[in-house]
Structures
1.
Amino acid sequence: MTASRLLDEIAGVGRDRARGGYSRHAFDKVEGELRTWFAERAGRLGLDVDTDRNGNLWAWWGTPGPDAVVTGSHLDSVPGGGAFDGPLGVVSALDAVESLQGKGFVPAKPFAVVVFVEEEGGRFGVPCLGSRLMTGSLDADKARGLRDPNGVTLAEAAVQAGFDPERFGADPDALARIGRFVELHVEQGRGLIDLGAPVAVGSTVIAHGRWRFSFSGQGNHAGATLIGDRHDPMLPAAAMVAAARRLAIATGDGRATVGRLVPVPGGTNAIASTVDLWLDARVPSGDRTRTLVGEITEAAKEAARAEGCLVAVTEESYSDTVTFDSGLRDELNARLGGVPELPTGAGHDAAILAAHVPAAMLYVRNPTGVSHSPEEFAEVDDVDHGGRALADVLEHLST
Amino acid sequence: MTASRLLDEIAGVGRDRARGGYSRHAFDKVEGELRTWFAERAGRLGLDVDTDRNGNLWAWWGTPGPDAVVTGSHLDSVPGGGAFDGPLGVVSALDAVESLQGKGFVPAKPFAVVVFVEEEGGRFGVPCLGSRLMTGSLDADKARGLRDPNGVTLAEAAVQAGFDPERFGADPDALARIGRFVELHVEQGRGLIDLGAPVAVGSTVIAHGRWRFSFSGQGNHAGATLIGDRHDPMLPAAAMVAAARRLAIATGDGRATVGRLVPVPGGTNAIASTVDLWLDARVPSGDRTRTLVGEITEAAKEAARAEGCLVAVTEESYSDTVTFDSGLRDELNARLGGVPELPTGAGHDAAILAAHVPAAMLYVRNPTGVSHSPEEFAEVDDVDHGGRALADVLEHLST
């Protein structure tokens, strides 16, 4: 089974009719189907599938052990996401195992394919949930209390899906087994188009985070309330969206995005009482992501004051700039005969692991650069090219 | 049973835990409970309860017939609305009937209490749904196709609640029976506070409407997409919110509100592909509501162009300025011994009926002016005062 064929197998799972694309989230029914599919597919390759205490799936080729070569990615999506972000790394890993087996290769080192839980944070708000829990960078109590948009806690969702949330938390044993980690991922920008190359090795991941801004005012009647009597939180929320764009441009290379915004009660003829919005901010150069967020926060506070509203800001997650292990990058690059190195503005589980073990990434060309959208795409030839590159690299590392 | 006591009886029905207050919408389970409660309460007063072809409830005191004196309001709410907007007019009507019966009064004319469907448009977007259907000002086919936020059509919801949507439409027989209509309602502004009076007679309802603005751009990754490559519909949506405020102020007395805004897909780390928002606009002076909407539309188009996005605008409902019947107003005012007359920025079923029959309104003081919010309130004394005023007026009209 090529990676493309494997993607086809799950093409019908988790389609989002309202948004388009896919909505596959931690501990929902669709994710359960994908888990079952992965276990079945890995089982056919003779891999032993295990679930760690945080719900991450591990498929071992041979006996689990230390200094393992580990590859994989995630199967969850953003709400209304594409088919490649996450699954491409998982199917390419299975494809690589099959092709290595096909030529009689047997790894000299322990070898595993991993599927991390909720990399996108699409349901519970914290990206790289599974890898953050495993590495201990996310507190288990905080994680258990995270809520989805319907108010369901992560702990409740886990129980419903048959997992024991009391076991969530740092998993030094699982982490200690990883010798080196390689994640293949569809590129989420236009870097490889510009370079005219199908595959690149990852260099850095830009510092990034998510901040929740809760604007509160006075809910009231949209027709009967004079403009001068209003404390409408939608006004400072809108001003903040504009300020985030303006201040991001001023950084030179920073990005600031508001893609999620929820007015409450959300009635057409009612002035909102609160507006919650989420800011995603990333600044490549310097250590300026939090500086940008500070500037945007000041603008939000000023706009809230002007409307007689309040704003509360919560940092929901933050990750510093990550530079992938230079030794491992050099090895990959040598094995692949010299491919471009590429920074990325997107976060990944590999970047969480990079603080603990040598980790690296391979990117596969995205012919439009579009990601986190139903239109996300990769050409079959590039997908196959990526699968072969991953097999090459894994063979080298596990020999 | 006083009006206050009757309100207490339904205080637990339809509470919205997420938003606070109440969410009671057309053909949902909660509205079904309120219908049952109303029929039971009216039955205890010896009224005969009937449902018309559009789902509006009629409770007749004596034999139905032409030239009837009709009073009533609605039981639905905005999402997360207050306890008074709608129900106060219904319970005051029941209270008035009971007190008139208590003193042995028998109406000389046909007499009915009516409950109109979905006055707020909180589920299907069109306010005064039941009265608009009855009077024929809303096309039945168009109504049947209206969708709630989950994509359920009005026709589907009606069937599920046990109604036949094929019967929806103009109901000249029901309309022809109404001789005069009086609706009591909590005030939704600060007019009666300023006047120091508990009750007023309604003079006019400001022209108002709802417009849907659909901004479309290019969904993409929030971290990997450079600012210069973006077509983010959240930007023109935010610019429009600011422009709506600015242009409303420029009219002198106009109101423009965006209380509902939905980005799709709505992920934190995804640039939205579309943002839908709803504009509620009302300008008291001149005939300038649509002029204001035209100006806001131009601003929205300009902002969309600047971001490489598109915007489509749909008028979901529009009502011209309504002046209540001056003869009926004078009669009410004489009967009540001279009370203030008050214009309102809020729409009502009485204003829909006013195009067809003499209609009038009584407003009950709202001590904060807040409405369409869980904090909406009226003092028990004022509620009782309103109930007595309504009984007085109905006795006079039906003698």
2.
Amino acid sequence: MIRPAELIERKRDGGELAPEEIAELVLGYARDEVPDYQLAAFLMAVYFRGLTSAETFALTGAMIRSGDTIDLGAELGRKVVDKHSTGGVGDKTSLAVGPVVAACGVPFGKMSGRGLGHTGGTLDKLESIPGFQVELPHERFVAQVRELGLAIIGQTADLVPADKRLYALRDVTATVENVSLIAASIMSKKLAAGADAIVLDVKVGDGAFMKTLGEARRLAETMGELGRHAGREVVCLLSDMDQPLGRAVGNALEVREAVATLRGEGPADFEQLVVTASAHLLALSDLGLDLDEGTRRVRAAIGDGSALALYERWIAAQGGDPSEDALPRAPVVREVVAEQEGYVSRLGAIAVGGSALRLGAGRRTKDDSIDHSVGVVCRLKRGDAVGRGAVLAEIHARDDASAQDAARGVLAAYEIGDEPPRARPLILDTIV
Amino acid sequence: MIRPAELIERKRDGGELAPEEIAELVLGYARDEVPDYQLAAFLMAVYFRGLTSAETFALTGAMIRSGDTIDLGAELGRKVVDKHSTGGVGDKTSLAVGPVVAACGVPFGKMSGRGLGHTGGTLDKLESIPGFQVELPHERFVAQVRELGLAIIGQTADLVPADKRLYALRDVTATVENVSLIAASIMSKKLAAGADAIVLDVKVGDGAFMKTLGEARRLAETMGELGRHAGREVVCLLSDMDQPLGRAVGNALEVREAVATLRGEGPADFEQLVVTASAHLLALSDLGLDLDEGTRRVRAAIGDGSALALYERWIAAQGGDPSEDALPRAPVVREVVAEQEGYVSRLGAIAVGGSALRLGAGRRTKDDSIDHSVGVVCRLKRGDAVGRGAVLAEIHARDDASAQDAARGVLAAYEIGDEPPRARPLILDTIV
């Protein structure tokens, strides 16, 4: 066995490691045979030198081998599709996509994560629904997907345990922001969970990991390579995260917005993303239809109420109360009023996300608790006209002091110009 | 207090840390408050981004503050000089320089280290002398320097403990080779040991840390800056380590060569380095003389036997037997015979050092034990004419098998050409 220090040195000097050498480091670390300080130095060397495609395949494969894998398709006897977002502000897409594709007859069994920092997590949003259970025994998870077509649960501890350890180490050693490491982390979990086809929503902009279209494209291409290398179909959407997605940022507020969208009353940008992602999932499924037919069926499921009905059955199946009245409401609601007229030229996603975080909607560290009721609703978004004294946003807070602080932050997130800004599409690119 | 991860990130992105931030990381690590994986990631970021002068000052200062300091000058009531080599193959300079400068009336109290890999350590060489004690209580160390003018002992554990921990971490994380980190490591120990003026011998070439004159000059300049910043005088010699220094490589063999040099019978290159380093130390001392007068006095101390007499008193004072017959001899001595005629165009230092290491003269890991008797004597060196069947070197080994292995390695270290190579001076530069 080669000494880890020699492998670190080779990567530091720009060399390539063999697949078994990558596995030695990662699985050695997962088994407590390679100490964390050597992994940390290796990760920083990777930050500066990158990983080749072959190294990224090897890293992903080693992470998958660190734990159990699931073959949901074999258990259901059907082709299984999955969806993943790289995370942003106001991203409640899975809450609406799940019911839509299940209503169209495609089984959707998904494992989700929690949020950290200004990005929210699907599990946290679901937990704002009273009674909702995010942990189901494997058999119940499979049975619910088979019978209802839909289940969303927390990632089990024995699925890719190396990723959990590696991510925790990256988080405290400033080695998160590397395309290969991000791609391997995401794809190892998707591949271990057994999806046959995956729609990836790579967020781009101020509120996303990837700040530029170029970086996002590199991540999308790397994830696509990893998926195809493992014999899966992958479609990547690159979508705008320069402003929050939809209007609502905050757990219960986002659930409300997802439900409104299933009723056909959602904000245009969010609805577009839900329809597009769902249509791609249908086109990748075993229904044997193309993207146009997928889009038609998705719109029909929203239009005829079947998606909303499926949402209600799903929430109830996991112990939750699907009625909107059951969702918690913040005691203080305060409006943010424009100080000038014009057009919203920019609405900073990270500033809105940060305000929601400070209100208590998110976690600064893993051990923070969340207030599910609080958050921000952006009534006006980029390109909207701002009249005299217009309400830009609502703050939902637990007290006046935090509402005032958030109002200041959200007001500063709005840039008002004299002219409408250049249009920026929601979906910036689609990589098949 | 700023989170260590933010400091790592700032260095990773090419930013500069404030002195108190550097101290927070290094002293936090020494106190077990900052975990080793964060230091490891920081060190790798430093490897890629470097440290500014201010950061290097701060690192050195923090390391000094991690432990005790010594003020030998105050205890002796005299200006104290010290010497340090960055390490190479066959470097026994301190063994001869100490007696020479002490014989000239300049007190020389030095703390030395052990060797690792192909570079030897002064302590290991001294321990090949039967009975020699490298550990003295502080009071006896000071008394011996006062009365005899000379003591060389091991570095005490409470002098710059942060350096010991940091070096051990760098060794296993491929973060040794950085000029700022090397300079801070060396100079923190010299400054904590209280020298007023320091002669630094920076080795350059195949057998040294610094492979090129440019790198060596950068290290010399950085160490000079650190010394002057702390109010000390520093002279740097850049000396050749493309071939072994002198002829002998191996602990007892090197002691013999140092003694021969004190008798005026040493190899020309080694004698030149001893005279030059000693003359600089005299010129920096409180004797108030210049380099020419220093050189004259050094030559006189070697010529009149006073340096050799002082060597013998010194060895006896630390419990050793100064007679050459007391030194251990290897049971097997084997000659390496030239396979062609010509001139030695190259004699690889690292190859000779590696052969000596495999014979047992050095340690691969910190816990290896050393055979003090074994090693290599290079009879011919770069530029020497090689006649038919000439003896290039002698192998001193503990058995035939290891002698044969070493003979192969040493033969391969010699390159024989038709023409004499271009002359390369021993002392490549002097930086004052």
3.
Amino acid sequence: MPTRNASATWEGGLKGGKGSFSGESGAVGASYSFGTRFEHAPGTNPEELLAAAEAACYSMALSADLEKAGTPAERVQTDAACTLDFIDGKPTITTMRLRVRAKVPGIDAATLDKAAQDTKVGCPVSRALTGVDIQVEATLE
Amino acid sequence: MPTRNASATWEGGLKGGKGSFSGESGAVGASYSFGTRFEHAPGTNPEELLAAAEAACYSMALSADLEKAGTPAERVQTDAACTLDFIDGKPTITTMRLRVRAKVPGIDAATLDKAAQDTKVGCPVSRALTGVDIQVEATLE
């Protein structure tokens, strides 16, 4: 199975310094700073990358789980919101809220919700992010 | 403190389907597929995003920790390698290996190593990825 690589460099101190990251595929890379992470400067940050990773993994995994159950989805869209908060004085990634909209012919809302909750626990990125409270709300389109 | 948003859509089944993701900042977004995730097709995947998130957070956090200790780094570069493996038949993100090179005037290798191991445990993304075995090897430049 694959190993995926990415790099990041930070130069200078926490507040005045600057960072950049890039993935080996060439598809992902940007600069970041104290301002883009902890304040409201425009730009990306690790929490946005985690939200993208969780959303991407979750949409793929729920599609796979529904397919395996004999009710394949036409489309699964996941909006992920990753919150950073200060806990005991330390910046802490507390929650990942997922809002899922799924187009799945022939199933009802309760069946979708059951599948959505199972995928929340079972998908690979969820099983990596066990330090975070992941919450899922799924809606049939 | 901020909440960061990203979205992803998967259309179709696991093997024949296709996905795309994007972050709200506009700095991160790409397509992905079964091939780019589990095989060797060119492109990105959630594991590369996790590697980028960990590398970005770690480089920033080690710089902050060294600054707080009175020995600020000029530069911290982190290469992150995120491995996906099959465990009990399930795709599982098993390890995140970090290779760190740091330019830090006035400290020795043992002091850097101690700081690097502390940051491994303490940085926000490490404390989120508690389902993954994170390993750090740090070198003074």
